[in-house]
Structure formats: C-alpha cells, structure tokens
Design goal:
The chain is mostly helical and 116 residues long. The protein is built from five helices and no strands. The radius of gyration is 26 Å and the shape is rod-shaped.
C-alpha cells in the first residue's frame, strides 16, 4: 500500500494544532484540571464559611468581658500578629468547635481593625 506524500505534513500540522489549542485553552481560555477546580472550590468554600460566621465573631468580640484588653492588644500589634490574637481570644472558634477557624480569624481581625 502506498502512503500519500501529504500524510506526514498533515499529521505534523494536526499535532502542532492540538498542542497550540491545549496551550491557548489552558493559559487564556479558562480551562483547568480537576485538581485546580477542586482547589478553587475549596478556597471559595472556606471564604464563604468565614463570611457567614463573621457576625458571630463580631458579636463575640462585643460581649467578651476582656474585649477592651484584646482590642488594645490588636491595635498595638502588627498586622501579621493580629490573627493570632483573635484566635487566642477565642472569638474565631465556632460554636461547638474545638479550635479556632483560621479564615474566620483572618476576616474577623480585618473587620475589627478596619477603623484603626
């Protein structure tokens, strides 16, 4: 059987086109792998939970007997220490939780220190 002479250039062009399509699709077309989609979904979920629990954290900061001392400590602390202060105060520990929620503490301290 005789293979036509145009077969090799056609196959090379098709392969180059497939590679170009994949590069353009993943870089600029918005395509993503399932692991990237799962990671994006996880980040969205954590942010949504923190947003829903934000009023709890703010209310807890207002009713805490040590609120004045903790707020003074927050004001004096640097920005990277503030999340730890909110966690230590217990304001970012959800009801029934054993340990503080990191995303909630971050968003709560941002809200508490917004006017500082």
């Amino acid at each position: 059987m005789q293979i036509p002479t145009w077969t090799k250039p056609a196959l090379l062009s098709a392969g180059a086109g497939a590679i170009a399509l994949a590069v353009v699709g993943f870089n600029w077309g918005g395509w993503m792998t399932s692991s990237s989609a799962n990671e994006l979904s996880e980040k969205s979920t954590v942010a949504a939970v923190a947003a829903v629990l934000m009023p709890y954290c703010l209310q807890h900061s207002k009713t805490d007997p040590k609120a004045v001392e903790v707020m003074a400590e927050l004001k004096a602390a640097s920005s990277y220490q503030r999340r730890g202060i909110v966690e230590k105060a217990g304001w970012a520990t959800p009801l029934g939780g054993e340990k503080p929620d990191r995303a909630l503490a971050q968003s709560c301290q941002a809200e508490l220190t917004k006017d500082m």
